[in-house]
Amino acid sequence: MKGKAIVRLVLSGSLLLLTLTLALAAQRIPLHGGSDMRSAQGEALISDAAGGIKELAITAQGLEPNEVYTAWLVRMEPKMAMTGLRGGGSAFTSDAKGNGRYTGTVSATELGKWQQIKIAHHPDRNPRNMKNIRSALVGNLK
Q1: Is 7 helix (H, G, I), strand (E, B) or coil?
Q2: What residue segments make up the domains of the chain, in order of their start?
Q3: Which residues contact 41 (CB under 8 A, 6 or more apart)?
Q4: Does 2.60.40.200 match the CATH number of domain 28-140?
Q5: What is the pLDDT of residues 45-96, one digit of tens each?
Q6: What is the DSSP string of 53-101?
Q7: 135 strand-pairing partners
Q8: pLDDT, tens digit (0-9, with 9 covering 90-100), for 4-24
Q9: How far from each other are the two terminal CA atoms of the chain, in whole angstroms?
């Protein structure tokens, strides 16, 4: 009996240590409603992938249902610039309840060049059309 209890204790401790290590390795960025969707909210979880690549996993709530959105890295200074993320394009569609999920990748070096994560809403449902896009969510990287 003592042997099984010790094994369980060691396994439980190892699992707890692994969970804490993964949680500490990931960076959580809160996303708040942009100028056009103030009630939207979400989170970007940045974690290490292989070979100097970072994975950005974005979850969002309060989006307009069944609509098209894109994820962007943005720099406001010294001059405004933006880039999409890799990994299946930067577009995703919210579900019928206004929830959305997106996962993309970027090199750790490239990520360091950007100041914000922004989620843009494309009212015409065309992620390639940058006219009339609306600010859905924003979060600060730095």
Answers
A1: helix
A2: 28-140
A3: 30, 31, 32, 33, 60, 61, 62, 137
A4: yes
A5: 999 998 899 999 999 999 999 999 999 999 988 899 998 877 657 899 999 9
A6: EEEEEEEEESPPTT-EEEEEEEE-SSS-EEEEPBSS-SEEE--TTS-EE
A7: 120
A8: 666 565 555 555 444 444 444
A9: 52
